[in-house]
Amino acid sequence: MDPLVELEQGQIRGTTTAGVTAFLGIPYASAPAGPAMFQAPGPAPRWDGVRDATAFGPTAPQPPYNKPLDDILENPRLDGEEFLNVNVWTPDPGSAGLPVMVWIHGGAFRNGSNAVSTYDGANFARDGVVLVSINYRLGAPGFAVLDDAPHNRGLLDQLAALRWVQDNVASFGGDPGRVTIFGESAGAMSVATLLGSPAAKGLFQRAIMQSGNGSIVADLADGRLVARDLAARLGIDATSTDFGALSSAAVIDAQNALYLDLAANPDPARYGATTIKNGLGLMPLIPVVDGDIVPHYPIDAIAAGFASDIPLLLGTTTEEMRLFLAPTGITAGLPAEMLPLMVPRFGGDPTFIDTYTGNRPGATPGDVLAAIGTDSAFRVPTARFADGHHASGGETYVYEFAWRTEHLNMGACHAMELPFVFDTLASGGAQRMTASAPAQDVADAMHSAWVSFAHGKDPGWARYDADSRPVMTFDQPESRVVNAPRDDERALWG
């Protein structure tokens, strides 16, 4: 008999497979249709009778990934208005007091969903965790600054989902007082922002940041510039009424053009200096410092001790930027004379080149550029975040994912750790990335560390400190702690 769970909204029916019960596509807020697409999330719907929760719900409106990422990153797009939904996997809906993990997906704040096969939560539930994965508004609906609408609507969605977890997770056997939020890329940037947000206090007790950055927010005035540019492309005013009257397809088309123009011509007068710098030159639609949900830059809030009571696990992959540079041929084909010209575009200084090259005998100029870009966008900001959290008294653990895929020569690239964390190496979204070598032992080590942390324990290695800088490095033939890896490179960034 299919399992039923009673929520305040009504009854839902899930499915049980191999001892794990899944409830999929549960709306945590009302459908944001029309002008509501650009307003705060509304109350969750109610229903009579039993609602099927046996298939993924709709995903937030979004474009496909640009080439070549569209052939690398799984990105299901499921139509429907009720895309503010959650999935729940539980070992036993009739249990009580189980730890809870809430997954916030990445995708540069314009792509992604909780329907990606890699994010299947069954193996977390197998190991005694209630896993919840959420959707939130992306792109302009989530982050365009409109004067007649609340700011940071994508973050408001995340907060609404976390409040839904507080109100409902006990019905799935979870303990609302044992919640760990975790996310990757834009999801980890969201985690950083929530750690510094007064609105999130009490909604979670632990946090994990995978390939994040504590500075991916823009000043409000710069966010307003981006929204007005987008509105001008559409021939409308930058209001929720005008945006809400358009189709999602029309908004996405204009948004795509804006992204391309920003990448080709990152003009601070047009898009704002903080949009360009903090959006890494690629993400014009990001959270903004609004004085409310985001009162400060997350990195500053953490350094000031705002989240010192929250144990934090954070880290990066060794070669993040290879996801973006290897498939396009840049790592293999960048001419040596171009490297000093490209390094500033990737946030570094040409004086760094000798150190990075000397540490990588035989590396191509493109390999060196990828390493500098990795440190600029991810590894150094993560180290700064860890330093700030540790210095404020926060319990801090740092990792690095170093296992390399041979697929398209991407190595230990951005997002490569995801099927290892979820223990889903056999999923459709992971198979081609991990087929080059057996890697289950790395997945076992990484997944068990996340599970241990969610259960309120340490992840299996020593706490971070600013002197020895211990970093658990997940790799073959063994995963081991490395103190201060590549510290001469980190020191170049100040």
Describe it.
- This protein is α/β, with parallel strands linked by helices and 494 residues long.
- It has one domain: Rossmann fold, CATH 3.40.50.1820.
- It is built from 19 helices and 16 strands.
- The strands form three sheets. The protein has an eleven-stranded mixed beta sheet, sandwiched between helices. It has a three-stranded mixed beta sheet with strand order 1-2-5, with no helix packed on it. The chain has a two-stranded parallel sheet with strand order 11-12.
- A hairpin with a 2-residue loop joins strand 1 and strand 2.
- Helix 5 packs across helix 7.
- It is globular, with a radius of gyration of 22 Å.
Distance between the termini: 60 Å
Number of helices: 19
**Helix content percent band:** 25-40%
Query: How many discrete structural domains?
Result: 1
What order do the helices and strands come in, and which of them pair?
Blueprint: E1 4-7, E2 10-13, E3 15-17, E4 20-27, E5 50-52, E6 85-90, E7 98-104, H1 122-126, E8 130-134, H2 139-143, H3 153-168, E9 174-184, H4 186-195, E10 206-210, E11 218-219, H5 220-234, H6 240-244, H7 248-264, H8 268-271, H9 273-278, E12 288-289, H10 298-303, E13 312-317, H11 322-325, H12 330-333, H13 339-342, H14 353-358, H15 365-391, E14 396-401, H16 418-421, H17 431-434, H18 440-454, E15 470-474, E16 480-483, H19 487-492
Parallel strand pairs: 2-5, 7-8, 7-9, 9-10, 10-13, 11-12, 13-14, 14-15
Antiparallel strand pairs: 1-2, 3-4, 4-6, 6-8, 15-16
Protein name: Carboxylic ester hydrolase
Family: Belongs to the type-B carboxylesterase/lipase family.
Pfam families: COesterase
